[in-house]
Sequence to fold (245 residues):
Amino acid sequence: MLRTPTGGAGHGTATAGGRLVSIGTVLNLLRDEFPEVTISKIRFLEAEGLVEPQRTPSGYRKFSPGDVERLAQVLRMQRDHYLPLKVIREHLDARARGEQVSIPAPQREPEAGALDHEPDRPTVPRVGRAELLAAAEVGEDQLDEWESYGLIAPASGGGYDAETVTVARLVADLGRFGLEPRHLRAMKAAADREAGLVEQVVAPLRRHRNPQTRAHAEATVKELATLSVRLHAALVQTSLGVRLH
Fold:
C-alpha cells in the first residue's frame, strides 16, 4: 500500500487529491512499501520507458496518480516476480491498451550462477574480425594497435560483441581528429576504474542470502552504469565549458 501525503494508508495511489506531484513526493509515497527506492531509481525507470511524467516549462518532473501507481506496479513485479524491465514494460503497456492480461507467475528462485547475466539481455551476437574491420572502416594494422593498447579485445569465446564494435567505431572517429591509441589509453583506464567501483557496490548484492536481492544485482549494475556514463559526460562538458570561457 502507498502512503497518502497526509500519512494515511490507502489502496492505489492517493496523491494530494489527484494533483501532479514532484519526484520527491513520489519517493515519499513509495517508500513505505519500497524502502530501498531512490530518486535515481525513479529517474532510471523513466529513462527505461517505464513511466513518462509531465514536465513543467522549467523542466521539472510532475507525476500524476497514474504515474505513481505504475511505478509501484513496476517495483512490485521486480520484487515479487524477478521480471526484467522489458517484460514488465510490455505487460503494463498491454494493460494500458485495455488488453486482458494476467500478472506473470513468480519465477523460480535463480540458481547459483544464473545471475551472471542480465535476465532481459538476449544472447549477444558476435562478429568476426573482418566484419569488425569493415564496421570501423580501418585496416588490420590499426586494429592490431588498438588491441596492443587494450582498447579492443575479442570475447572469451572468440569474435567481437556489439559493444566492442561501438568502441571500435568511436576509436576510429577520434583517430580522425588526431587522437591516437596512446592518448585513449587513459580513457580506458578510467573506464576500468569506474567498472571496478560498480563491481564493489554490487558484489555484496550478488553474495546476499536473500534471492530477491541477488536477482536485482544485475539491474543495479545497469542503473549504476547508466548513471556513471551520464556523470562522465557531464563532467567532460563542464570541464570543456570552463576552458572555453
Observations:
- The domain at 2-96 is CATH 1.10.1660.10 (Multidrug-efflux Transporter Regulator; Chain: A; Domain 2).
- The longest strand covers residues 2-3.
